[in-house]
Target: Aliphatic sulfonates import ATP-binding protein SsuB
Amino acid sequence: MVGEIKIAGVVKRFPQQDAPDVIALSGINLTIKAGEFVSLIGPSGCGKSTLLRLIAGLNGADEGKLYVDDEEIREPSYERGLVFQNPMLFPWLNIHDNVAFGLKARSIYKQKKTEVDKFIELVGLAIFHKSYPHQLSGGMAQRASLARALVNHPKVLLLDEPLGALDAFTRMNMQDELIRIWQERQTTMIMVTHDVWMKQFTCQIGSLL
Ligand SMILES: Nc1ncnc2c1ncn2[C@@H]1O[C@H](COP(=O)(O)OP(=O)(O)OP(=O)(O)O)[C@@H](O)[C@H]1O
Model:
């Protein structure tokens, strides 16, 4: 299996004007095994999103290193899919083209076109593949955003409160969906959540932050 994450002595500071630096992460050491589904839990401001952004390669650590399968994380990669609380779909592209975007950017769309349809179907949006983001509900848009990350077959899926903006019923369905995808694909998943039910289901590491 692939997708093991190692975090070694990671420190992240945010400099402030006329004030001491904010120390968002102070010496985090953690290993997440390939195929695990882990929740990051903890009080607001404890550094959950910061850690996710470092694993995504969107920000660099001030000290320490992060690895995926022993390869150091230095920049964003399609191997680490990221889903935010608010689905960031391109409003001018329909659902098919949103999901296909990464494959087109990497010039592998022609070979992988059937994958786009497969993942749109997996998240239950087959009949909406020609719809535009403004024609979808929040839950549907979030599922499209999940398909867009999954179509790249990431080693790791990073989920930053992906269910936070959804109503309770849609959230329950999406939770089931995520667990089903995880069981089916065995992708390493790291999810920032405040949801107690997900917290019970997944491994808990929030106390480390
Ligand atoms: N870009 C930034 N510039 C300055 N400070 C930042 C930045 N991003 C995060 N911080 C600070 O780093 C700390 C950790 O923030 P982070 O967003 O990681 O917390 P969190 O645990 O995800 O919080 P929440 O549960 O409220 O989303 C906070 O004190 C925050 O103000």
Observations:
- The pocket of adenosine-5'-triphosphate is lined by residues 14, 22, 24, 42, 44-50 (CB under 6 Å).
- Strands lie at 5-16, 19-32, 37-40, 63-68, 71-72, 80-83, 156-160, 188-192, 203-204.
